[in-house]
Amino acid sequence: MNLIVASLIFLSAFLHVSWNTLGKKRTPSAAFFFTASFASVLVLFPVLLILGFDFSIYWKVWIYLLFSGFFQSVYYSGLAGAYRTGEMSITYPLARALPVLFVPFVSFLAGSTEGLTFYSLLGMFVVFAGCLILPQKTLSRLSFKEYFKVYTLFAVLAAVGTTGYTFLDSSAMNIIRNTEGDSILSAVFYFTVQMIFVSIFLGLYILINKVEQKELFTILKKEKFPTIAAGLMVAAAYVIILICYPMVTHVSYVTAFRQISIPLGAFTGMFFLKEKWSAPKILGVLVIFIGLLIVYL
């Protein structure tokens, strides 16, 4: 992984933490992520039309887009639930750490081990171990019940969604790169259409959930601009990652190094959201940072 890719992933991580902070602080709900997703579509889709983008040249990736949109909606739903029931300084790292193991494990089951080394796998495991330390109340005694809280289940759900769309997006972007077209514009196309499907799936969920309907009305009445800002940050962060996928030898490298957002998210929760400081949180962040260095080096 070269310096340019690492810098792009860091920028994406910063934007990712920023919109998550807005989601946690404002209205953590599926309605929030639906509005943010739809806002990004309203901004980017006209750009593609104005530039005369030919949607038909990537007909092979539409099935990837459909399922990726579904897994993205699963991720957002899990994230919303985690933020409603737990602290961002704990739930954000958990949701981001679990895919570090899920992705290579699924890759192994699929028969793909290309680009994976002992040190990269070790680094991924260290990142995961650091995030397991985070939920603990004290370092003197490990309590497994901390892993069975409601927010933990939601974090796992979010991680499953992340794992699903990570594989689909990587495969789709590789197909796109083998087709004639501008890479940045192609990434914008992919993200925009994906957000259309996300909006559809989340919209269907809101239609059958009265609580989410009330949240949506609240957002449209009082929280429009913060939610739109979050949508733009989602778009920028995700397009950057899509651009990075074909620039590395294995998708797990991107998945692992973008976990730099874990310490950023943890400290944001403790500094800006005034969440409780604790020794396990600090140690967990340090262990994660060491794991990221192992992956990077």
How would you characterize this protein structure?
With 297 residues, the chain is mostly helical. The chain has one domain. α4 packs across α6. The chain is globular and about 60 Å long. The N and C termini lie close together (9 Å).
Mean pLDDT: 85
Radius of gyration: 18 Å
Structural class: mainly alpha
Return residue spans where pLDDT drops below 50 for at least 5 consecutive residues.
none
Strand count, sense and barrel status of the largest sheet are: none
Query: Count of DSSP helices?
Result: 12
What is the CA-CA span between the terminal residues?
A: 9 Å
Number of strands: 0
Along the chain, the helix and strand elements come as: HHHHHHHHHHHH
Q: What number of structural domains do the residues give?
A: 1
Helicity level: over 70%
Q: What shape does the CA trace take?
A: globular
Strand fraction band? under 5%
Task: Write a brief caption for the model.
With 297 residues, the protein is an all-alpha fold. It is 77% helix and 0% strand.
Notable features of this structure?
mainly alpha; 12 helices; 77% helix
Topology:
Elements: H1 3-25, H2 30-50, H3 62-85, H4 88-109, H5 118-133, H6 150-177, H7 183-207, H8 210-222, H9 224-244, H10 251-257, H11 261-271, H12 279-296
Helix pairs in contact: 1-9, 1-11, 2-7, 2-8, 2-9, 3-6, 3-7, 4-5, 4-6, 4-10, 4-11, 5-12, 7-9
